[in-house]
Amino acid sequence: MRIASFNINGVKARLPRLLEWLSETRPTVACLQEIKSQDEGFPFEEFEKIGYQAIWHGQKSFNGVAILADGTKPIETQRTLPGDPEDEHARYLEAEVNGVRIACIYLPNGNPVPGPKFDYKLAWMERLRARMRELWALEVPVAVVGDFNVIPEDKDVWSPTAMASDALMQPESRDAYARLLGDGWTDAIDTLNPRGGVWTYWDYQAGAWQRDHGFRIDHLLLSPELADRMVAAGVDKEYRGREKASDHAPVWVEVRD
């Protein structure tokens, strides 16, 4: 079973690239972030043509998450992150696929620092931790995947100095992420690449892709019941280099059935 995550940066703008990736790599589950589409505009029919069924939580012009499954319908278990009834951002969607609970997240960016957006980011991470503890207590295979907008360590960025003032690298952001791992979750990419140097995002500006000035912010966190089944994890880096690509590359983890 291959569980993948892809910040698509606009599902309609990147639809040809997305359909290419799905057809060529055929993940069992594909979690999408930044679909940037209202619910009624989500192109679910295009995915059905190639054998994927979908659920989605959209929002006009920005945010938005979706879960696609190959040959089966994801069974929705939670829409929106609990803990703040006034939060209307479409950043969280949760479903069950083939006996695995999948949470697809698009964590707030948090810039500029300091400010209300950074405060919102940290509060959202605390709410996420609370939900992940609830999922942990179920004692079932769980994957929490998506764009976390956190660079966990200096080894996860091409230049720590260049990103030092960014919300993605602030001590508070890193501490909040570390607390998730401290609760017993496994960071799949980091576990299999402990020396770092693996990027999932390259900015469109300043030739970042051509110079390989990237960093790792797309993560796959596994509960013990799923981490015990992990056999491989990686980044589909080449898709970042294609025409009209997202600024993120897909990440994935393979687990035994």
Overview of this structure, please?
InterPro entries: AP_endonuc_1, Endo/exonu/phosph_ase_sf, Endo/exonuclease/phosphatase, ExoIII-like. Its cofactor is Mg(2+); Mn(2+). The protein is an alpha+beta fold. Strands 3-4-2-1-14-13 form a six-stranded mixed beta sheet. A six-stranded mixed beta sheet has the order 5-6-7-8-12-9. Strands 10-11 form a two-stranded antiparallel sheet. The protein has helices at 15-25, 44-49, 116-137, 171-182, 188-192, 224-227; strands at residues 2-7, 29-33, 52-57, 65-70, 75-79, 92-97, 100-106, 142-147, 186-187, 201-202, 214-215, 218-222, 230-235, 251-255. The chain has six helices and 14 strands. It has a single domain, classed as Deoxyribonuclease I, Chain A, CATH 3.60.10.
